[in-house]
Fold each of these.
Amino acid sequence: MINAVGRDIPEKVLKDLNMKPFAGTYARNGEEYKKAAPTVRCWMDPKESKMVDSIHDVLVKCGLRDGMTLSFHHHFREGDYIVNMVMEEVHKMGVKDITICASSLGKAHDPIVPMIEDGTITNIQSSGVRGKIGEAISTGKLKGYAIMRSHGGRVRAIESGDVHIDIAFIGAPTADEYGNLRAVGGKSDCGVLSYAYVDAQYADKVVAITDTLVPYPNIPASISQVNVDYVIVVDEIGNPAKIATGAAKPTTDVRKLMMAEYCTKFVINTPYFKDGFSYQTGVGGASIASTISLGKIMKERGIKMGLGLGGIAGPMCELLEQGLIEKLVDTQDFDLKAIQSITNNPNHIEITGSEYANPMNKGAYVNKLDFVILASLEVDTHFNCNVVVDSNGMVTGAQGGHPDTAAGAKCTIVIAPLLQGRTPAICTDVTTVTTPGETVDVVITDYGVAVNPARPDLLECAKAAKLPVKTIEELRDMAYAITGEPEPIKFGDRVVGVIEARDGTIIDVVRQIKDYEWD
Amino acid sequence: MINAVGRDIPEKVLKDLNMKPFAGTYARNGEEYKKAAPTVRCWMDPKESKMVDSIHDVLVKCGLRDGMTLSFHHHFREGDYIVNMVMEEVHKMGVKDITICASSLGKAHDPIVPMIEDGTITNIQSSGVRGKIGEAISTGKLKGYAIMRSHGGRVRAIESGDVHIDIAFIGAPTADEYGNLRAVGGKSDCGVLSYAYVDAQYADKVVAITDTLVPYPNIPASISQVNVDYVIVVDEIGNPAKIATGAAKPTTDVRKLMMAEYCTKFVINTPYFKDGFSYQTGVGGASIASTISLGKIMKERGIKMGLGLGGIAGPMCELLEQGLIEKLVDTQDFDLKAIQSITNNPNHIEITGSEYANPMNKGAYVNKLDFVILASLEVDTHFNCNVVVDSNGMVTGAQGGHPDTAAGAKCTIVIAPLLQGRTPAICTDVTTVTTPGETVDVVITDYGVAVNPARPDLLECAKAAKLPVKTIEELRDMAYAITGEPEPIKFGDRVVGVIEARDGTIIDVVRQIKDYEWD
């Protein structure tokens, strides 16, 4: 069945997953639905303890069995030890057919690939995957489907009951013995626990794992005792050096600096750039350079940002410190500066993943964005973006908040160099659609700026900013003129993964990579 | 059917309400149950506004109809305008058979009595009632049952689905246009919105009513935009003078000072009085005097409180300021000092009603109490307390957190003068059981101190403290010797209300008052 972005979603996949094809970004707006709910055990007797000695013991207490769904968060990023620690024990116990529902998975989790191969893990739900898990999925080793969800989409899936978590494992930089969890104050601080909040609310059993037990009460808590069943203390929950990076050096890449300049010029020439505006940006070199130059102009013109949103890195924290941002609202911290900022600055505030981006609650923060600055592996002539599958067809990225912020923001700007190495980033059709073109307003490349024809108002802004305005087709043609039109990737027939739109429909599928055949 | 505190609960009542008789404070510990969930409308389109012009319009938007359950919080206490404002409009619209589910109701709500009489309101669920609503209930004017729940019990009832809220009305000192609500920063600050949190989570429709609209985002929010459907601005949501009282003058009543001294002496002679202890107290004169004298001893001995809990008044905030409390954890503010403290002191922290006292979540703060100091209208020889029905049989008080803290604390101390005017406070059987005696450890009167025989350890502490130790029967006999044994109140047969134990069973019933008959 052809969906609203022109992708053919096989009937078998729709049936297997009981899902519908994507029908447009706002198609489900206003729908009513009954929220899901966990089955919980009440802790009424004050004499009971939540402390458990080992992961093995807690798995027994939680009644681990074949076919369960276990959940994890990714706030420790490439420094995470929790997923491997838990799955190793699950594997030892011989339990099979586990679904992993993670807010994201990375190279840190390469050690679980053998468990995919032997049927311990048969389904993966994640914002994305990298490294060997991506290869395992793309080469057909996962028995079930990999479901890739945006950060908002994952919360929606859990809150609506599309996925039910049996046991949530929450790595916590600090915990008290009754399960109040904080993201700061321990050996492996990660700043916030935003993405784990929904797991704590909706999982039947919730297990906190910490390496730093602190006196009761550990508050203000990111996750409260009222949602936690058990607390385990281990030696190390993560590798701090890989959880938070040091300060990123400002880019010196002239292409990135040029795109940053285009971006800033465009932003300040829109009517949304006024006192109290709201803004989110990524951590790419161009995004960061653009944020820094925007800050200078804000200072010159006496304009303050009312709301800075998102995964947060140092440069946004510096604007906050300089008094150029009223409130910095945070779901993930990328560097030490951000972790220090949320620990110390009362105007730097943690929110939950649902508050950030869930499209089916009563209104997420992304809905209030004026600007979002995003990156993309590919953008096509329909303005569709691909942030998950590389140009070899391998799953190697994550949706993150990309489709969520694009859908919410008044002005969605995608920065992409015309060429990613020898591959055109601007193309006729993206390999895989992860963010629908109807939500992408402006594409900024090092060869020019294209505005979505649906936004003639923004085209006028780009012209007023004296930017090198092109059509998206012109940009594509320039790219193809340099590299030649790329050969289509050869996929097999088997669908190994689906790209879930933030509203729970299928926007695209990912097929198994075909072994290379000589013509 | 006779329940675990010896009260006869009529079969008809059990059947009408589909409830079970009370079987003991911890009888339901460890039970598993599926939580309730609301039916929500998603707000996906960033262009939609939540602002509505009037209460009438919002009632129409929410689909108000006969038989619905509307909910309210009581953080504005006797200064609340919200209940009357909403119910006046409901009444005008001619809607009937409304259940009011309030965290509490007071004299401020006397104006709704005519709506009880004319069938607009047919059921009331509240922590308690005062004034004319109590009279209306006790004289049989309410068509259905009044259900009295503790603060924790109310959250349990909502989270478990025993009561389903159709529309929650949340008076908010400040709100932004997308529904982020705070308890401070407006014309009618109330410090916290703890008891309204569960309404926002579990009601199908959530309406915020404010008199102070502030710029977006109004954070850190007590109640988040993701749970709020509509925002209304009115002229005044409350009377600040009646929301928060000024500083209470220290009592000069010698009886109260004597009981305070007994209480302090007892506390410091228990093994629980050590660095890091946890403590909750009320706002009665003796409680406050005891807190002040306890503070002096803590300072002398270099002992700090780890956790101060509860409804908070000035004296606890002063201990926090003096560095004698690590964390002050708050669900309700009784005076201006407390509101100022939570606004300014980062160690004074708001929690939700569920975190405070819900017996059927994964562990409430009350479970971590070492001491709670409570008052009571009556205490009987089984140590049962009555805090709802006066000695004339009239409903005129509230359960509040009484049964919750008593069940949670390691040491529950009830302070009551031997006589309340000419009525014995220590009696053979309380008029109505609201807190079961098995959770009450020590009773302190101006004529002596009685310890529950179930706690021989605490009896030794009382003796070590050189307190005038009596049996509870001795105290009762002293009271009866002064006043004579009181005549039993003459009730009619009709049950007009039930006292719900915190676990959702019936601990006692309230019968209609009988007109006086000459013998």
Amino acid sequence: MSKILEILKEVKESGIKNIYKKNIENVLGALTKTTDFWKMIDYSNIPVPYAAKIIEILKNKGIVEIKNDEIILTPLGLEIIKEEGVSAIKKELRCEACQGRTIPFYKDIELYRTFVELQKDRPKAIQDFDQGSVTPETTIARVLFIDSKGDLEGKNIIVMGAEDDLTGLAIALTRKFKKLLIIDIDERLIEFDNKIIKELGIENVEAKVWDLRNPYPEDMLGQFDVFITDPPETFIAFKAFIERGIATIKDEGGSGYFGLTLRDSSIFRWKKFQKELLDIGCVITDIIQDFNDYMNWDYHEETKAQKVAPVNKKPQDIWYRSAWYRIEVLPGFKRVNEQIPQEIFDKLYLDEEGSTT
Amino acid sequence: MSKILEILKEVKESGIKNIYKKNIENVLGALTKTTDFWKMIDYSNIPVPYAAKIIEILKNKGIVEIKNDEIILTPLGLEIIKEEGVSAIKKELRCEACQGRTIPFYKDIELYRTFVELQKDRPKAIQDFDQGSVTPETTIARVLFIDSKGDLEGKNIIVMGAEDDLTGLAIALTRKFKKLLIIDIDERLIEFDNKIIKELGIENVEAKVWDLRNPYPEDMLGQFDVFITDPPETFIAFKAFIERGIATIKDEGGSGYFGLTLRDSSIFRWKKFQKELLDIGCVITDIIQDFNDYMNWDYHEETKAQKVAPVNKKPQDIWYRSAWYRIEVLPGFKRVNEQIPQEIFDKLYLDEEGSTT
């Protein structure tokens, strides 16, 4: 049996089910690029608790050693990498101009500058609501990506939660939509948005506090062309968020945008997500990996991620990214709009694969 | 009923089933950007025969007129666009550096230059084999994309057909793989590759003529880490090509790369493709729209596309593009390796949605 498959077997025996050969290869490959645990996560696209377990096993097998909080491949590790043809993911090949997003944020430099200026006093990300904001470049690239698909000008748009990224505010600043509704559970964000919208006199925007557990009122159903959200990554929560989004869509061909990561979900769960999207009447039109760059959040030390990490060193740079999905809603889609039970919501933000909340 | 839905109804009544509201909007949106039929296809992501039918109906309704082979929106057309909030797809927002591919071809400028020089005498695309080559920038960006995912260095790679794009040759030039097998039905291409491989003394590459209808010999099954192909876009052919690719994969986590277009397939067929990929044990990790740019082919005038077009004007520029898919093969996948019946193969290259072959 190959050394990689041996390691895989041991990781599985330790109780991790949703793991496959590629995960082991990606971790080993990443360690040829960096000795930093958090950068290794960035390079290997794997849930943090799984990465921590793999490192533990690699250490026990003498494949890596940990010195001064750095993870270093031993001569044995380097030999395995060579023998088994392990290759690292090469982020250095990403386009510098658009940072691998296909659309560069600077295509509307005025919008970017205005946004950067306005967001300076944004409310801080808090752990209560699973917050962690993307960079301003990410937010603006999202807006331009949506515009590039013909999903902004003249459209009715709803931004459902995750307004800690201020995507709703950035869309508001374009003034290109027909109608814009921003909802979030965090009243600090809604107040922040409303203050700016009022000061700038932007019309046809509403920002309101809303708890996504509650069904939408009749006047929000079937009203929108586009929904944008950032679902928590447990299956049940994902399904609930996306179904709520689809319930707001007016016609076939309406579209949805959201982020999904491989750092709080395994590839196995991605497959379940994708199957669910098709089952509820959607088609996937775009998946851009590493589109969403997350700034480090103040509560990092309190997260499961830091607790399970094999090092005490905190992230020095951006390490958490997610892919950007675009879906379209096809004819025959259904609008599901039921109460999401509290007990499901309690488990929304954390499970075996998730660790950053 | 909205004007767009009225047009949609009429298009459906003319016998086109796989069409939805977004198609009509995209065609109208595209006409705000261009009066050229082929550029309009590029901007609207729609099968050519469907676009031709929509234009015919728009003309009958006085929404467009055709003058000197240009398609022009009438005042009525402009009014509908404004009233219904129709927005164009905005290709001008694409990154100029990587041309929207996330990885720019110039990240390995030596490889690009060598390839451009070597491919000058490439065999011409011929209609017999549904050929039409991508630009050299596309080919090199594919190779770098594959490398960026950790799927090149030290890997066993098979390029299955579509060597008119010379993707196999470009991979050979990197000398980074462990083993490379290039197969194609067109012996001109295989001879072309073999000549260069021999002259440059590149090792561990084999290029051989192979008819994909035939099952693979035992020594090709379960041997590879990565497969690359360009399946014809009928459902039955797509399934056969992808299954053949998966049959070559050694282990879970192996990956596949291929192009899919919305210019020879409807979004409805994409949904079937995506469902099939999940059903046969894969997960989709990347979908980059407009990654593959196709050069115009000499036999364009002989294609159904030109015959159904409402104008005589030929394409002036690149108009045919496809999305680039990456999939991963998950644990439990099956190797299917049966003869593909001739009668299925006869229908491979043309159906109601396809038109460019």
